[in-house]
Design brief:
By secondary structure, the protein is an alpha/beta fold. The chain has helices at about 1-10, 25-30, 55-60, 100-120, 125-130, 145-155, 165-170, 185-190, and strands at about 15-20, 35-40, 65, 140. It has a four-stranded parallel sheet. It is globular, with a radius of gyration of 18 Å.
Length: about 190
């Protein structure tokens, strides 16, 4: 962090950010130089940042960049079978996409889809609208390769969630609702460090 702070002072870097850092790491880094943003996975499917990381970024005034806000595509409702994933798709190695976890996560998505239908939106739009409702400091970055999905994602801005809607979403997709680790165990040891 000291070397990165030197780059800021030299005018070679404007802002500093971290990815997948723990609350303790964020605090240590921020003590050396102000951190502008933290990038971490966050969605209806991955809520663990709410425990310590998100409160820390809020306390320190750090923007929270939520990657994989659609649960690696699962929350779109477009993935129905393991075989829907290409042979070379990295998600085939994700515990959430394997075995019993896959079916349990499909059941979770089905509950989200029911709420989305009631709101007359796509499940992806509901998931993004929920994330946007979590605070102005949260900036979701959904990835897409197709224009139609980009436009669909933008439609989340038009989805208005009432406090009652948020309570219902919480009831069908509470913390810990996703089944399985988000990465294989060896990779999980590398996140939030």
């Amino acid at each position: 962090m000291g070397a990165m702070a030197d780059l800021v002072r030299a005018g070679k870097v404007r802002f500093l950010g971290l990815s997948e850092a723990s609350s303790a790491t964020i605090r240590r880094a921020h003590a050396v130089h102000p951190i502008a943003a933290l990038q971490t996975e966050y969605s209806l499917w991955t809520r663990d940042p709410e425990d310590q990381v998100l409160p820390t970024t809020r306390e320190l005034g750090i923007a929270f960049i939520a990657y994989s806000p659609l649960g690696r595509g699962f929350l779109t409702g477009l993935i129905r079978r393991f075989e829907d994933l290409a042979e070379d798709d990295y998600r085939r190695f994700s515990p959430r996409f394997q075995g019993e976890n896959f079916q349990k996560n499909l059941d979770l998505v089905a509950r989200v889809e029911l709420l989305a239908r009631e709101k007359r939106c796509a499940p992806s739009q509901l998931a993004l609208a929920w994330l946007l409702a979590q605070g102005m400091d949260i900036l979701p970055i959904p990835g897409t390769k197709r224009r139609k999905y980009l436009e669909e994602n933008l439609g989340a801005l038009d989805v208005q969630l009432t406090p009652a809607d948020l309570r219902r979403i919480e009831a069908v997709a509470p913390r810990g609702a996703a089944s399985g680790l988000r990465y294989p165990e060896a990779m999980m040891n590398l996140v939030n460090g």
